[in-house]
Amino acid sequence: MTDTCTTRAIRCFSGHAVRRCLERGITALHVEQALEQGVLVAEGEGTGTWARGRLRVVVSRDGMVITAWRTPRRNPKRRIQKSQSRKRREKRRFHVREAR
What we know:
This protein is α+β, with helices and mostly antiparallel strands. The protein has a domain at 12-73: TATA-Binding Protein (2-Layer Sandwich). The chain contains 3 helices and 5 strands; from the N terminus they run βααββββα. It has helices at 15-24, 28-37, 76-99; strands at 12-13, 39-43, 47-52, 55-60, 64-70. A 5-stranded mixed β-sheet has the order 1-5-4-3-2. The longest helix is centred in the last third of the chain and has 24 residues, at 76-99. The radius of gyration is 20 Å and the shape is elongated. It comes from Desulfovibrio piger ATCC 29098. Residues 70-100 are annotated as: Disordered.
């Protein structure tokens, strides 16, 4: 008997998965597509995490969807700009307090 989580058929959604999918704008169709067309990216104790694009879906071995989320968009240039902007803002705040 193999201990891998290769379940691609959805049996049901957990209450947690339903709440998170509604909060995050993820439809049942998105989840189905992730399981049908995605790849298994991680396995835990009785669970598997499937990925399709930015969508991640955790499914138990018996087919219950446990949760789903989208990974953040990655833009290194924007991340650097935000970091520099935050540093400038903190620097200005520090100098204003010191001048008073």
